[in-house]
# Entry
Amino acid sequence: MKNAHLIKALGASLLTAITLAACSPGTLPGNTVGVPGTGTQTASITGSVVKADLTPANNATLVLIQQTGGQDRDVQIVRTGSDGIYRFTNIPAGQYRLAFVLQTEDERKNNTTKYYSPTDELASRYFSFITTGNFTYSGNAGSAYQVPQLNVGWVSGLQPHGTSVSSNGPVNFTWAPVQGATSYILDIRDANNNPFYKSNELTGTSFNWSDLKGNQGANNGVAVRPGTYYYIVNARLNRSGVGTGPTPTYGGTALASFTVN
# Structure
């Protein structure tokens, strides 16, 4: 099973360091930040993913995402090898961000949802996704980026999960803190995955949903009904001090569920 293999391979929290450089001979100097320009050369993005004990993480999924006209699209999806190394190739000039995701390549392409489970090491011990901020590759061989490491471990401890709550009283959500988080947002979906409720940015690790009414789209002002609801907790990250270049700015948990009676 691919997922079982990935769970075994990832172990504790992951760290990933990547380097972006134009496809030309030579060694990339450490901590070099290139000046954006207008070039036509393609680039390769290589890097390594290691576990907290610095041993290679096999089969971790990395996605290179390009933003064009305000829309994101996956440019390439790669997996690390047994040595923990991955490579994106033939990347033209453009604006990109790099994401770690729990899905396999096929699951990413098929938009497969990862669900939270306290007994599933993969879904419970890691961000479901974590992404850097946008960075620009200029297409110029003189440009290079040293991207800081990503730490994607988060034992989130989501509550409630797989339990029933009453439609007559408030629902209290709790989660564990993640290092480097400046705020959190709770995002609730109905049984059909339609947006139902989204909190303001929260600085703590709990939220009391007192009125049990939606505030999103067609569900704005709608009271909860008996049935299943889903939610994730997103974390806004500030890791600008970890190095020069694009750093992780945003991440989220896998999807948890609760039932309203």
Summary: The chain has a mean pLDDT of 80. The domain at 2-112+131-151 is CATH 2.60.40 (Immunoglobulin-like). Residues 2-10 form the longest helix (9 residues). The longest strand covers residues 227-237.
